[in-house]
């Protein structure tokens, strides 16, 4: 028997309870993994709070983790006990041990530590598909990113820089502005001091951006649309301030704009896509184009406090839970 964090009912961080959880022996196509590091993400908050529906009566949040294979079930040829692995899955990772379908796992290169892997499997693959697929960024593009000093934000800024784009970020404190500047952003707007859409117009000499990557949602979507140039792409990939309210398709008429609302899981649904995108991510990390260097580690049991900090905007970069 091992321990995990289980919510019996949707609610605040306090619904996470430290309990014994069953870890069945791996069946056909499954692998038993001992977790060594588990990433904290806003999607964990969405599931815990009930914003995203639960598939079962109870919920163990947690969408990215790294660990060591302890046993493999029948039909698993690509993994063996002792392998270092990592994965992304919608939920279920806040636990010491887990049995999971082998198709979700990737082997970790020696150069990538467990803590780094647990901080980039979801956030880094998100940055990867955003810049290559949601809106394929080209050298010379100017792009706006909200929550630039957040988990996804710090990776995105560096990736945009490596492509040769001009990255504009927004952040809510002077310390966060400074951190984002050190992670690829050419301009960082403190949105508490300035109207960010007006600042973007000024920075781009009135032209606007080719794309906006907006994970804040309800507080920012109007300003995001105002920050786009003609034919610009509004990518809404999250809602840390709440689900977007009041958006109408006709809002896109102001500049023949486009909008999309992507989810990582669609971009890695096929095994070949997961492997290809991971290879790109691990390659960027190995080359030093993207550094996962802003990570706070805390004990797995403290996940509720980690959620409270994330929701209250007290974090920068990534938080990783250690079992
Ligand atoms: P972040 O670290 O980016 O989120 C926290 C930051 O968001 C805060 O520090 C704060 O920065 C900013 N923020 C703005 N408004 C609010 C608010 N009302 N409440 C709380 N925070 C706010 O988190 P993650 O890196 O985990 O995730 C970033 C976003 O990306 C999330 O919305 C997540 O859902 C989304 N996501 C989407 C995926 C997809 O495929 N669709 C996959 C992965 C992540 P500041 O103080 O600077 O405003």
Globular, elongated, flat, extended or rod-shaped: what is the shape? globular
Radius of gyration: 20 Å
Bound molecules: NADPH dihydro-nicotinamide-adenine-dinucleotide phosphate
Q: Give the biggest beta sheet.
A: 7 strands, mixed
Could you name the ranges where pLDDT drops below 50 across 5 or more consecutive residues?
none
Structural class: alpha/beta
Number of separate strands = 15
Cα separation of the termini:
14 Å
Mean pLDDT: 98
Number of helices: 10
The percent range for strand residues is: 25-35%
> Which range best describes the helical content: under 10%, 10-25%, 25-40%, 40-55%, 55-70% or over 70%?
25-40%
Order of helices and strands: EEEHEEEEHHEHEHEHEHEEHHEHE
């Amino acid at each position: 028997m091992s321990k995990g964090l289980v919510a019996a009912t949707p609610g605040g961080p306090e619904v996470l309870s430290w309990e014994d959880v069953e870890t069945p022996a791996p069946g056909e196509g499954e692998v038993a993994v001992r977790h060594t590091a588990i990433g904290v993400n806003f999607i964990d908050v969405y599931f815990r709070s009930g914003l995203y529906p639960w598939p079962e009566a109870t919920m163990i949040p947690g969408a990215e983790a790294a660990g060591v294979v302890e046993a493999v079930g029948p039909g698993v040829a690509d993994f063996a006990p002792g392998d270092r692995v990592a994965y992304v899955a919608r939920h279920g990772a806040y636990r010491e041990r887990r049995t999971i379908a082998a198709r979700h796992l990737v082997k970790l290169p020696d150069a990538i530590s467990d803590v780094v892997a647990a901080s980039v499997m979801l956030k880094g693959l998100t940055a990867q598909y955003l810049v290559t697929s949601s809106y394929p960024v080209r050298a010379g593009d100017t792009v706006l990113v909200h929550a630039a000093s957040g988990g996804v934000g710090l990776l995105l800024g560096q990736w945009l820089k490596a492509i040769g784009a001009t990255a504009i970020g927004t952040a809510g404190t002077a310390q966060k502005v400074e951190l984002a500047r050190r992670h690829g952003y050419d301009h960082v707007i403190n949105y508490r001091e300035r109207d960010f859409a007006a600042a973007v117009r000024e920075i781009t000499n009135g032209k606007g951006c080719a794309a906006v990557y907006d994970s804040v949602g309800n507080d920012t979507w109007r300003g995001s649309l105002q920050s786009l140039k003609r034919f610009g792409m509004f990518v809404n990939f999250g809602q840390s301030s709440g689900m977007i309210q009041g958006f109408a398709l006709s809002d896109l008429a102001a500049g023949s704009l486009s909008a999309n609302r992507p989810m990582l899981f669609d971009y890695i649904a096929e095994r070949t896509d997961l492997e290809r995108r991971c290879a790109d991510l691990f390659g960027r990390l190995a080359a030093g184009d993207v550094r996962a260097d802003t990570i706070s580690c805390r004990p797995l049991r403290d996940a509720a406090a980690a959620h409270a900090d994330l929701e209250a905007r007290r974090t920068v970069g990534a938080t990783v839970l250690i079992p």
